[in-house]
Amino acid sequence: MSAHKIIIAIDGFSSCGKSTLAKELAAKLGYSYIDSGAMYRAITLYFLRNQVDYSDHAAVLDAISNISLSFVFNDETGRSEMYLNEENVDPYIRDMIIAEKVSEVAAIREVRSFAVAQQKRMGRKKGIVMDGRDIGTAVFPDAELKIFMTADPEVRVMRRFKEMYETNPQVTIDEVRHNLELRDYIDSTREESPLHQAADAILLDNSNLSKEEQLDIVLEWVKDRATNPRPVSPNN
Fold this sequence. Notes:
Layout: E1 7-12, H1 18-29, E2 32-35, H2 36-49, H3 57-65, E3 69-74, E4 79-84, E5 87-88, H4 96-106, H5 109-122, E6 128-132, H6 135-139, E7 145-150, H7 153-165, H8 173-189, E8 202-205, H9 211-227
Helix pairs in contact: 1-9, 2-4, 2-5, 4-8, 7-8
């Protein structure tokens, strides 16, 4: 593969495996992985801890001015972890209470502007993989490779249920299904950078793909984009 580094933007619905694919791609390519979802979750955690009124414009701006986000690589786990104001909050941002509120917080214009500015700064040197809801449409509209991930709704429900059950055995499938449906609605209909497939993004439906199969497919797309200036057909 050419040494030419590119930006890989991965968007899609919750529980489609965006983060898993992004992490595997970054490790395979020697790229940096930026978890935009973790950034919004950390902001949500700050809002909840400090009882920030989402409807109060001044309160939101004040809260944002007191937030510092960074990713710190953990040698023991072999991955980057989310730090909020120098505190490792990775263990807390996957809780159901965060999942229930993150789409609301992420829909706030000032929050998105704050996060997108940081994400763009992180991507200046290229050689990054970033996943989220608006990476290929708002954060990196000129990304060399854009992927839009989707999967059958029930497949997504079971994936998220298994993930959450490990830390919260009380969670039910109905709770998870309701949460995903609500997040899909909010993400797709919000005024600020709604979730939708970019015109030049490649659709990846992984309902029936293993992690290994989808990684092999996307690595071929990366190879094409890193060595060939002509775009891959979105229908490929």
